[in-house]
Structure formats: structure tokens, C-alpha cells
Amino acid sequence: MKILDYIKDNLLFLDGAMGTVLQNSGVDPGKYPEAMNILHPDVVYGVHDAYFSAGSKLVLTNTFGASAHKMAGCEYTPQQVITAGVEIARKAAEKYDGYVALDIGPLGQLLEPMGTLTFEQAYEDFAMQVKAGVAAGADLVFVETMTDLYEVKAAVLAVKENCDLPVFTTMSFEQNMHTFAGTSLSSMAITLDGLGVDALGINCSLGPVEMLPMAKELKKWTDKPLIIKPNAGLPCLVNDKTVYNITNEEFTSAMEEIMALGVNIVGGCCGTNPDMLRHFFNVAKTRHKTDVSARQPVSAVCSSGKTVVIDGVKVIGERINPTGKALFKKALETGDLDYIARQAVEQMNAGADILDINVGHLGIDEKEMMVRVVKKVQSVCNLPLQIDSSNVDVIEAGLRVCNGKAIVNSVNGEDEKLAAILPVVKKYGGAVLGLTLDENGIPENAETRVKIAEKILSAALSHGISKEDVFIDCLTMASSAQPQGAMETLKAVKAVSANLGLKTTLGVSNISFGMPNRPLLNSSFMTMAMNNGLNMPIINPNDDMMMDAVFAYNQLSCADAGGARYISRFAHRTQLSRQTEGDYTVKKLIALGLAAETKQAVKKLLETTPALEIVQNYLIPALDVVGKDYESGKIFLPQLMQSAEAAKMGFEAINRYIAATGNTDYEKKGPVVIATVKGDVHDIGKNIVKTVMENYGYEVIDLGKDVSPQTIVTKAVETGARLVGLSALMTTTIKAMEETIVLLKESGCNAPVMVGGAVLTEEFSAQIGADFYAKDAQAAVEIARKVIG
Amino acid sequence: MKINFDIDKNEILRYCGQKDGEVSLQIEQLAEQYAEKIKSNISPRHISARFSVSQTEDGVMLSNGILLKGNDIKYHLSGCDECYVICATVGVQADSFIRSSLAMGSLYGLMADAAATAAVESYCDSVENSLRRQLKNEKLYLTWRYSPGYGDFPFTQQPEILSMLKADKLVGVTCNDSCIMIPSKSVTAVMGIAKNKPAHRERSCDTCPNKDNCNFFCIQR
Fold first, then answer.
1. Is the ipTM of this complex over 0.90?
2. Sign of the CA dihedral A622, A623, A629, A634?
């Protein structure tokens, strides 16, 4: 019987700890416990056999750490220990008619953005393990003890795309109901359910008592079979030994409570042993499989740490989109992801619940850009995402690297669109937004739009996408062009919401196109739409009037329990006291570090003064004054940076003006290539240098942190860098800095190299071959003036 | 063990590079904001283990066979029969918070980074004090936190220390090939346990090996 057939009618008893039992076997497992599959197969067999004889129906192979990274330095390859591991378990399983699961643990390297391992590389590493395990004859794949949802996603995709075997997954949670990496129970359940795993749950880290409330929480979010595989109580460290101290009776009685919830796949993790499980299974085997009680399905999307349930009105931020935005287009053309990251954080801080991501722009590789932007945005913000493109390849690429459950924007009533996009939505477990238009365009009347919505719903259902994951956009028409349009849209929203029971979205601001006082029409229309069942307005969250209307609606419609969110939004809306009385000059505003005011003042100056003159006569002199005050110790770094941020806003006004008018009397100097060297992950100092240098008119190409010597050399040569800046904060990474300098000099790149960072000194910099030592950002500017002018 | 700790805006300013002198009202308000914001962006946890120690030629040998290398750690643990080795962290949430603040501008990144540093240091102070109180019951004294990278105690021992504390599994702290810890706002430290009050080993700038090259003035504030 296949494992999935078995669990339909039976409880499934898993095994317990491998490591704990191996350690007690008398043979030292050493640095590579998986090598025991080859060195001491009899010992490993003994562990499997003991668990089967204790009542386990399924054992996990001794391959938890069989990843390329963890096995580096071992005389056996991951494939070798996996093959041997599966064979040993297979042999033991035959005797008991049991199942063998290929065990896959964390890779041992953290994924981006916490670490530096890319999602794609993680996928490759897992795929290698999966292929080896499948070839050796495993019955299923068991991905376990994970703390990062992103890593789990890479593993699950590696299983699904490289074999037909079922996949079970469990993650390790702390008592705060989150993993170390910040994944929440709901996000795990929603994401993995969507990805189509065959069972999911929790293992390790905690004992069964602590897992009980977590099992309850999980049941709210998924109907998948649940797995609970706890430690033998909470681990504690006595000297350097990890000790677990739960009795067999305590373990069994806590597990009984968990099973009563309808958890049918159970076993043990660290600290458990065949004795403990025998005790537990002897009691548990008298039970019958209890089916999961019906839960109320909800519409929800998530990032790794944040779940957004679509109850009340939730805001989708629309700002990550180049349409009509000169600076955004420029950022896409130059690959300036920092600009886009700021748009994301601004919207998050303004109260957006979900962020739409659209990077469609002529002349760029949209697919590659979508991947980069999704990764960048989720590195700075924890909101769920909406992948927005008309190209199915771009959608798939975005969904693939999204850490969580995303919305796809969009499909419509065209058969071709539905057939192309819905399978991708299903594969990655997303929600889908359907526009009520088709081959014949946008229907004028509400009835036809509702018909299209019905068609989209039935197509989604036929692809296995649930009703809760279908959102409908009834389309906003400009009221200046179609005076009846607003009412028809509202009628359609009401029908889709009330009759079809689907969640709805609307891009709101189109309503006021071509009319005076657009904000008034926008917020009035949105309020009317919310009252007709609009769940997710797609708006600019930085627009206070619109956000205020959403908060007010949620308060009045009781979606905001007790008005807590409303109250906290307005109770603290007191402006910080600012020293802005009087009419300050740009210079004074920069000295005071007033960013918004500086931007306004520069905008005003641009009406009368050429850009170049503003830079030369206002911005740079202001920065020089602040720089001198910093040098002399009159002000310190925070204030220097505050002025730099203010000046940056002034420059942004100028850049926007140049991008919009094509005026080029002001050109940047450089370029200067900067990076934090390989192995080093500190980037605050480097970013400060970037901000200050850009303010002085230098074009700074920032390669980021942990950058290999070769990448720095390639970029420096490719861009014709006039100056290269390297940052390293630790003694351990100075070596990488030295290697980079050597490679730069060898490559024939004749740009001088300046270096900086906490552990460097003038003398040390000279020793490693740097041309300049910059003790701070101001010093870097002086060096650039010397080298470039 | 529940550990309570505060985050002081003045500490944030100090980690930002603010020295004595006038602080602008806006910078002060910003530091206050970040002292508040960081609280909802951390998930503090720690692990501590107690070892008996013996001095060797090259350093200090722990009872689990790990040698802590260097003369400075020998000096730090002189007169101690035992030590505590701890690892404390405020979690990856703090790193996410720093990244999102940095996205809004270097100033905000600087503030968030300083706030997270202030948080982990304050948390460590509380952990240290709580261990000190426990030892008081045994009539024992505790020296202060000495970490890899101080003096000639090699930074490269970080992986060994994390591994012996099972820090990866128990508190979620790992390190990369350059021995940099992830989450970045994490601390490992060794504290001596002595029968007599270790008066000569008060923490001070004078005894700090980085005293000539320091921006922070950690002690004499």
C-alpha cells in the first residue's frame, strides 16, 4: 500500500530521535553522523529496527545532515551516504512492512536575506539530495526541523519537480509560536498547503506539552494531515550536554491530548528513544484515526512572518509600478533597487497590508527584474506580495522566489489567459485576481461583468484553486468619460461580493481621471465601494486621505475590533516638534536636517534657477558647512547624516526634474564603485559613504555586501570606475579586502582603491596595498575630490 | 528564565557616534522613537553553560576539552575555578528591522543598528546580572563579559564556542565562514566565576585593548 493510501485510514506512527540513540550506541558519530551509514551500517540498522519493533510504521533515514555544505570535508559524498542510508532503512522496513522516508534537514547555510545562500542554489542542493534518495528507493521525502519558510519552499519545489514521491514537511517553532527565522504557524500552514505538500506540522525544539497549543493553531489554517514530532520535553544545557527530562508517561499523556485534536501522524524527536515511543504507541494504537473537523475556510495571503486575512478592508499598495513615474523608470533602467526598496518600506510604514509589484518597462528584462525586486522587497519588508505582470513567465518567476503566499495580478475572462496562468497559480499556491473583461473588452453593464467573474471562478475551481483564493476586480471607469460607470462598477462589486461570495479589489484612482479635485472623488468612490463589498482597494498608501477613509470604514463596520487600529492611528498623529518657524534658506534647512522642507525649497528654486547652480551654490556649500562642523567635533555622526538625508531629498527633487525635463546641465562625476568585501555582512558604514558621496555629485555604484573580489574587479573594469571603495568591519574579513586589492591591481584596473572600516588604520591600509584610507564618509569625499575632482 | 531589560536612548546615541556635546532636538526624538520601535522588533533569548576551567600555557582549558586561547582570556579568568560561557541574541527580527530602516535612508539604518546594539547589550547586562545574583547564593563572584575578538582572544574561536553551546539549535545563532554571527546582534562571552571578589578586574577603558582606537567610551560614560 502506498503511504498516502495508508494514511487515509490509519494513524501513522513515526520514529524518534536518531542522533540521541546513535550517541548512546557506544560508537562516536563524530563530525559526520551520516557517514555511519557507510562506516557502521549495523549500528544505524539497529536504530531503525528498534523503532520498528517499538511500533513505528515509518522511519526517517540517517541523512539529516547529508547536504553539500554540511558534508564538506567528509570523505563520502552526500549521494553516497544517502544511498547507503536509504538501503539500510529499506532493509529494516522490509522485515516490518514499514515505510522509508528520505530525511532532509536544513542545508546548514542561511538563505538570503539572513545569510547569503541564494534560493536557487538551495533548490539545487535539495534537488541533488532528492534525486539520490529517490534512486535509492525511498517511499517519500520528509523535510524537517526547518526554521526558514523560504528554505522549506526550495526543498518542497525540489521534491515536486524531481520526483513523484509524496512530501511531508515539519518546521521547528519556539514558544512564541514563531521559528528562529520568524516564520509563523499560520504562514507555514498557508504557504505549504498552497504548495501542495502531503502532510505538514511541527518537530523538535519543544516538548509535546508546548506543542499542544500550536497544533490547535495549525488546525485553524489547513485541512492537510498534521504531523507532531516533539522532543522529550524542553532541552536544557547542563555543562555542554543537552538534557531532556520528560517521563514516558508524561510524553504519552501529552501526545494523547494532541491526537485528540485530530493529529494522526505522530512520533518523537530529540531525546526520545524506542522505549518512550513503545510506551506511547502501546496506548495510542487503541485509538482510531480521527478526521479533521471542518474549519471555516478563510481568504488569506502571507509573507514568511505575517499573515493577512482578508476580513474587513485591506489595502494593496500600488507604488511599486513604473507607470507614469520618471524616477521609478530610471531606477529600473539603472538597477537601483534601493530606490524601489524605499518605496516598499514607505508603503509598509504608511499602513499598506499587501504590496503590488509591477516592473514592466520597455528595454529591461522584466523576468529577471521581477526576481530581483521580489527578493529585494521581501528583504526589507514583511508584507505579503501581489505579483503583477501580463506575462506568465514573469508571474511564475515572481511567484517562485516569493517567500509566502502571493496574489497573482491578473487573469481575465479570456480562455487563453485562464489556461496559461491558472496552472501557475495552483502550482505555487497563490491567490488570483481576475479582471472582469474578456476578448470583447470591458462590458459596460454590471451583469456582464458578474458573468465574467463567474467564468473566472469556475475556471479557477476546475484548476483546483479554492474559492477563497479568487479575488475579482470589477474595474473602475473614469467618471469623466462614463458618467454611469461608477454606479455600474458598484453594482458589480455588490453582486460579486454578495452573490458569488468572492473577495473583491478595485484600482480606485481611475475614477477621477480628468476631473478636478481628484482626491475627493477618489475617497468618496472608495467609501461607496467599500460599503458595497470592496475588500481590497489598490491605492497609494502614502495618501493620508485614502488611508484615513479605510481606517474609518473598518472602524464603523466593526472590522476593527474596539476601534483599536483607528484610535492608534489618530491618537499619535502629533507632528514632531520642528524648528521650522520662519522662512529658512536651503542651506539652513540642510543644516537643520529637515528633509521634506529641503525638498520643497529645492523644488521652488528649480522654478527660477538652473539645476547645476542649485547644486553648486546651495547644496554643496551647505554640505561643506556641515562637513566642517563634523570634522571639528561640533556635530557628530547622527546630525551629519540627518543633514545628508535632507540634502539627498534636495537632490531627489533635482533628479526628478532632470528625468522629467531631459535637462542635462548637471552631470554626475565618477563612477565610484563601492562594496563591502567577501564574507563581511556589515553595510551601514558603506551606505553612509554612499549617501554622502552621492550628495557631492558622485555616481556611486553600490555592489552591496559580501561581494567577491572577482565581482568587484569585473564591475570596476566594466563601468570604468575612477575610484573603488572597499569596506570591511572585522579582522577576519580584512584578508578578503587585501585579496580584492591584489586582484584589482593585477586586472590592470587603474582606479585607486580607498578602504575603510572599524578595524582599519592608516598604517594597516597601506600594508594591504590600498591607495587611500578613509576614516569616515567625509574623508571619502575628500579622497574623491582629489582623485576625480 | 525571564529577563527584563530597558533600552536607553542615550545608549543609542552613543552607538551612533554621538559624543558629549549638544544633541539636536530632532536627533534626540529620533533616538527615542528607535528605542521604542526596537522593542517590537526583537526576540531576545540566551543560553548559558557552566564549566570548570584550568590555566594552560596557551590559554584556558574548559572542562569539555575546549581551549580558549590567548593571554588576555587567561588574565580574565585568573583566580577562577569555573566560568560561564553565554550566547545571547535579539534575533533575526532585529536584522530585518535594520534592513527596512536602512531602506529609508542611512540615518535610519544607523539609528536602527544602534538601537539593536543597545538592545542586545542591555539584554546581556541583565543576563550577566541574573547569573551574578544566582552565584551570590553560592557565595561566588562573577567577572564581566569577555568575548572573542577582545585582546588576543581570537575572533576565530566563535564557531567553536557556538557549537559547544549548541547555539544553532537552542537560540538560533550561527556564524558564517568569516566568523560573523547571524543574527548580527548576538553576543558570545566568557565570565569567570571566582571565590574572591575580583577587584583587579573591574571593567574599564584602561584595561581595554582597543582603547587607542575607540569611538565609543563604553565604560567611562
1. yes
2. positive
The CATH fold assigned to A668-789 is Rossmann fold (3.40.50)
Q: What angle do CA B155, B185, B41 make, to 5 degrees?
A: 175
DSSP designation for B218? S
Contact A356, A538 (CB under 8 A): yes
User: Cell 510604514 appears where?
Assistant: A349
Is residue A672 helix, strand or coil? strand
Sheet holding A307-309, edge to edge: A307-309, A300-303, A404-405
Closest by alpha carbon to A636, among B214, B16, B211?
Answer: B16
The strand pair at B80-89 and B67-69 is best described as unpaired
Shortest Cα distance, chain B CAs vs residue A238, angstroms: 7
- Measured between beta carbons, the chain A residues lying within 8 angstroms of B165 are 237, 240
Q: What is the pLDDT of residue A293?
A: 67
Any residues with CB less than 8 A from the CB of A657 and at least 6 apart, and which?
A: A603, A606, A611, A663
Q: Give alpha helix (H) positions in A557-594.
A: 564-571, 586-592
pLDDT of residue B221: 34
Partnered with residue A59 across adjacent β-strands are A100
CATH architecture group of domain A3-284: Alpha-Beta Barrel (3.20)
Chain A and chain B share a number of CB contacts under 8 A equal to 170
A575-664: CATH number: 1.10.1240.10
Map out the domains of chain A as residue ranges: 3-284, 318-404, 575-664, 668-789
**CB–CB of A182 and B96 under 8 A?**
yes
What is the distance, to the nearest Å, from the Cα of residue A766 to the centroid of all Cα atoms in its chain? 41
Nearest to A639 among B27, B101, B165 (CB): B27
Closest CA to B194 of B84, B67, B87: B84
Tens digit of each residue's pLDDT (9 = 90 or more) over A731-777: 888 899 999 999 999 998 889 999 999 888 898 899 999 999 999 99
Q: What is the pTM of this model?
A: 0.93
pLDDT at B200: 56
What 3-state class would DSSP assign to A738?
Answer: helix
CB contact under 8 A, B166 and A687: no
Compare CB distances from A687 to B13, B51, B102 and report the shortest one's residue.
B102
Report all structural domains of chain B as residue ranges with CATH numbers, in order of start.
9-210 (3.40.109.40)
Other C-beta atoms closer than 10 Å to the C-beta of A731 total 17
**Range name among A169-173, A523-527, A608-612, B57-61 with the lowest pLDDT average:** A608-612
Q: Which pLDDT score is estimated for B204? A: 63
Contact A244, A235 (CB under 8 A): yes
**How many angstroms separate the CA atoms of A736 and A756, rounded?**
13
In angstroms, rounded to a whole number, what is the distance separating the alpha carbons of residues A408 and A390? Answer: 10
